[in-house]
Amino acid sequence: MLDVLVGPAGAGKTTAMNALRRAWEAEHGPGSVVGLAPSAVAAQVLADDLGIGTENTARWWQNHLIHGTTFEAGQLVIIDEASLAGTLSLDRITHLAQVAGAKVLLVGDYAQLQSVDAGGAFAMIARDRSDTPELVDVHRFTHAWEKTASLELRHGRTAAIDTYLAHQRVTDGDGEAMTDAAYNAWRADRDAGLVSVLIAETHEDVTTLNARARADLILNKTLNPDRQVELHDGTAAGVGDTIITRRNNRNLRTLTGRDWVRNGDIWTVTAVGDDGTITIARDSGTGTVVRDDGTIRARRRGRRFGGSIVLPASYVAEHVDLGYAVTAYRAQGITTDTAHVLVEPTSTRETFYVAMTRGRHSNHAYVTLDRADDHAQPHPGDDPHATARSVLYGVLQHSGAELSAHETIVAEQEQWGSIAQLAAEYETIAAAAQHDRWATLVRGSGLSDEQAESAIESEAFGPLAAELRRAEANHRDVDELLPRLVAARGFGDADDIAAVVHYRVERATARPAGSGRTRKSARLIAGLIPQARGVLDADMRAALDEREELIEAHAAAVLDTALTECAPWTKALGMPPNDRRRAATWRKAARTVAAYRDRYRVIDDSPLGAPPESAAQTIDAARARVGLEQVRALERAEEPRSAGRTPGKHVPGVSM
Q: What domain range includes position 603?
C-alpha cells in the first residue's frame, strides 16, 4: 500500500495531487485524504494547496505516542517533500498505515535536497521500483530552453552548463565581486517590483548579505534604525524588516488561534518594543498597530488573512533571522520571479539544482573562483586557473544526496572498483615502484649533481616521472631520450629544472614513435593508462598487474552493460563489424571510450561528454576520441558489406 510520485522542480506536483485528492474523495468520501510533510511550513503549504488536514511528521508521531493518533482504513496519506523525510520517520508512518489499511503516497524529488537525518529511503524506493510515475513536463519557467536545461541540471548532465552560459545566466569572478554582482542584481529586481530570492551557499554569506540589505534599506530611508532588536547572528531587526522564524512554537498563535509560528515562515516587522519582544501579524489589511510595550508587530508575507502574534524577547534573540538572503534549504519549495545564486566550489549538484529552479523568469548563477574546496575528491575548484565552467562541472559531478544503507554499500563497491579508483592506485604504485629508476636516469642525464638533486626533490618530479612512463608506453627509448633533451639546451636561471625537463619531454614525445605503418600502438591499459615497465620488485609488479587486469575487466563490463541497456551514448558506436578480427578491434576501441566515461564520471548522452577540464583529462579525452574515430571508421568500412543488416540491439560478449 505504498506508492511514489516523482516530479522535478516546477513540474506541477501540486496539480497532480489535487486531481488525485478529488478522485480519491469521490470514491472514499470527504476527509479521506490526509497530508504529512517533514516540516511545519511544508505541511501548511500542503494544507493550503489541497484543502486537507495536515501535520508535520514529527508532531504526528508525537501525537501517535501520546494520544494514540493513527490512520483509518481507506485513507490516502500523502507525504509531501518526502525526500526531506528521514528514513526512520517514513518507516514508522508507512508501517502504521499498512496496519490500518491506509495507502501512503510519497511525493517529492530525489534530485533535490534531502533529510538532515538518516535518509535516502525515498530515492531508493523511487529508483528501485519499475512502476514509479514521474512527471516530465516542467511548467514553471517562462523560457522553453530553461525547462530543458533544468532537467539536465537535475540529472547532473554537464551539457547544461553550456546552455546557461550561452544564455548569459552565469557570471564568474572572485568572491567579493560575485557577492556584489548577485546582491546588486537582486536589489534591482526588488526595486523593479519583482519577487526575487537571493541564495547563498553558507550561513556566513547569508548573514553578510542580510546585513548589507538592511544597511541599504536604512540608507534609503525605508527602515528606521531608531528602534530595533539584536538577533543571534549579530544583525538587528526593526520596523519594515523581512524576517524568518526558525523554530516551531505552537504556543505563539494569532488571536484567533488559526495560525502559529513555524520554522521557515517569512514575516515583515511592523513594530519594535523596548523590551525586545516582537509582535508578528498576518496581513489583514487593517494597518499597523504599535503596542505600548514596544513589541514588534510583523505581517506575514503572501497571506490574505491573519492576526497578530507576539514573539517573546527570548525567541527573538535565538530563533529569528533576517530574511533577505537564504540558503538553498530555505529556498526549496518556493517560487519567485527571479533567483540570484552564489555558487561556491563546495556546492553540490542538489543545492545548485534547487537554487537554479526557483525563478520563473530567470535564474542567474554567480560563480566564485577564489575560494578553497574541501571536497574529499579532487575538484575543478582547486584549480587556480578555474573558470565558471570548470567549477560548475565539478559541482554537477558532486552529488550530496544521502544514500540508504543498501545504496551506500553498492556505491562504495562501485567506487572502489571504478576505473578512477583503480587508475589512481595503479599510478600511485607505479610512481613508488619506478622512483629509483627515474631518479637514477635523471642523475645520469648530464645534469650537474646539484641540478639533479634539485630536480628529484622538486614537486615537478612526479609529473616528470609520469611523462617518462607515458613516453616509454609510446615506445620511446627514455634512456637515450632524456640525456639528449638535457644536452639540447642549457637551463640558465630556471627556477625548477624538473618542470623544464618535463616540458621538453612532453613536447618531444607528443606523437608515438615511428610513422605510417611502422608506428606502434601505445602500451595503454584500457586505452588510457600508460603501463609501468621495468619494475623489478616482485610485490610491486604483482600489485600493478592485478590492477591492470581489474581495469581492463571493469572497462569491458562498463561497455557490455551500456550495450545491453542500449545507453544513448552507444548509438555513436554504430554496429560492430561481422568480421571477427575487425569486431575485436571495434570492441577494443569502444572499450577505451567506456573506460574514459567511467574514469571521469561522464553521464551525458554524447560519448565523451563535456570538454575536458584538466591537462590529464585532455590527454585521456584525445585517446578516447581516437578510439571513437576508429570505431566509426570500422563501421564505414563495413557498410558496403552490410547493406542488408538491420541496426538493433548490440550483443556484448566474447563473440566480438
A: 566-637
What does the pLDDT read at residue 651?
43
- DSSP string for 250-311: EEEE-TTSS-EE-TT-EEEE--B-TTS-EEEEE--SS-----TT--B-EEETT-SS--EEEE
Place of cell 637551463: 491
Calculate what percentage of the chain has a pLDDT beyond 70: 86
Instruction: Give a yes or no: residue 372 inside a domain.
Output: yes
Cβ contact 406:121 at 8 Å? no
User: What DSSP string runs through 140-207?
Assistant: S-SSHHHHHHHHHHHTT-THHHHHHHHTT-EEEE-HHHHHHHHHHHHHHHHHTT--EEEE-SSHHHHH
Phi, psi angles (nearest 5°) of residue 396: -70, -25
Does one domain contain both 245 and 344?
yes
What pTM was computed for the model? 0.68
> Residue 129: what pLDDT?
84
Q: Identify whether residues 339 and 223 lie together within a single domain.
A: yes
Residues 205 and 252 in one domain: yes
Q: In angstroms, rounded to a whole number, what is the distance separating the alpha carbons of residues 177 and 181? A: 6
Mean model confidence pLDDT for the chain = 84
What span, in angstroms and rounded, lies between the C-alpha atoms of 623 and 526?
10
C-alpha 6: how far from chain center: 18
Rounded distance between C-alpha atoms, residue 525 and residue 427, angstroms: 11
More confident residue, 572 or 280: 572
Q: Phi and psi at residue 261, in whole multiples of 5°? A: -80, 125
- Asked whether residue 485 is domain-assigned, the answer is yes
Report whether 337 contacts 189 (CB < 8 A).
yes
Rounded CA separation 195/338 (Å)? 7
Instruction: Specify whether the CB–CB gap between 583 and 620 falls below 8 A.
Output: no
Closest listed residue to residue 325, CA positions, set 209, 485, 417, 416: 209
Give ∠ CA 467-473-476 in degrees, rounded to 5.
80
Alpha-carbon distance of 391 to 610, in angstroms, equals 13
268 within 8 A of 298, measured Cβ to Cβ? yes
Q: What is the pLDDT of residues 207-259, one digit of tens each?
A: 999 999 999 999 988 888 888 899 999 999 988 888 999 899 999 888 777 78
* 127-141, 162-176, 329-343, 639-653: segment of lowest average pLDDT: 639-653
Q: Nearest 5°: phi and psi at 367?
A: -95, 120
Do 222 and 345 fall into the same domain? yes
Q: Is residue 541 part of a domain?
A: no
Residue 242 domain flag: yes
By C-alpha distance, which of 556, 529, 521, 410 is closest to 466?
529
**pLDDT digits over 473-522, tens only?**
888 899 999 999 999 888 887 889 999 999 999 888 876 555 555 567 78
Residues 527 and 595: beta-carbon distance below 8 Å: yes
Q: Determine which of 122-131, 277-286, 305-314, 558-567 has the lowest per-residue pLDDT on average.
A: 277-286
Please give the C-alpha separations between residue 323 and each of 94, 186, 327, 556, 591, in angstroms, as whole numbers: 35, 13, 10, 53, 52
> CB neighbours of 304 closer than 8 A, spacing ≥ 6?
283
Residue-wise pLDDT for 83-129, tens only, equals: 888 888 899 999 999 999 999 999 988 888 766 565 667 878 888 88
- Other C-beta atoms closer than 10 Å to the C-beta of 182 total 26
The CA distance from 555 to 127, in Å, is 24
Overall domain count for the chain: 4
